[in-house]
Specification:
Blueprint lengths: L5 H17 L6 H6 L4 E4 L8 H8 L3 E10 L8 E10 L3 H12 L5 E6 L6 E8 L11 H43 L5 H4 L1
Antiparallel strand pairs: 1-3, 1-5, 2-3, 4-5
Helix pairs in contact: 1-4
């Protein structure tokens, strides 16, 4: 999909061939750089950097389909990371150059400076590719609703079966208790077994 320069294609092909060998067997850097439905991993984001800020900062790469922020630490402002999922990459120089930089850097990272427009606080945003993106759901709302209803029905049936089994177990314990009393054994059926 890099059509502007042959150097971009050569650079992507050269790096992706060497990088693919060191990653999980199902990840291909060339596919990440060229194919639709890929995602970018932002290694750390500050507490003030939310979905809107990510959208406005990252939309130059491609058409964003969803953004997922993960809080991995309860400490305010630390331990947050984000995944930005794209329907497709834009075919412009800036988008291509960022992807080339990610593939060609030693740590597969592109560093971008971002400023908080209110406090003028800067942070360095480290972008890399997401090797294990969660696939988008192919179910529509009606299908998901039907699945939830089916699970709820099955759950209700299981609860009824468990209630019936509990009743049977209680009945059997009472029968065992009566029989043990008649035979002169202890009155607690579990202690006699």
């Amino acid at each position: 999909m890099f059509n502007n320069t042959s150097n971009a294609n050569a650079s992507l092909n050269r790096k992706s061939n060497t990088q693919t060998q060191s990653f999980e067997s199902n990840f291909n850097a060339q596919n990440w750089a060229n194919e639709p439905n890929q995602s970018v991993f932002i290694k750390r984001i500050p507490h003030w950097f939310g979905e809107d800020e990510i959208y406005h900062t990252m939309s130059y790469l491609g058409k964003i389909s969803r953004i997922h922020i993960v809080d991995v630490s309860p400490t305010k402002g630390s331990g947050r990371m984000a995944f930005v999922h794209y329907d497709h990459w834009f075919n412009n120089n800036h988008s291509q150059n960022v992807r080339i930089e990610i593939l060609n850097s030693n740590d597969n990272t592109y560093v971008q400076s971002v400023c908080n427009p209110i406090t003028y606080e800067y942070f360095m945003m480290h972008l890399t590719y997401n090797r294990r993106p969660i696939p988008r759901s192919t179910y529509d709302v009606d299908q998901l609703t039907d699945m939830i209803n089916t699970l709820n029905s099955e759950n209700t049936i299981m609860k009824q079966k468990m209630s019936l089994m509990t009743e049977k177990m209680n009945y059997q314990e009472s029968v065992i208790k009566i029989m043990m009393e008649k035979l002169g054994f202890a009155t607690n059926p579990s202690s006699a077994l």
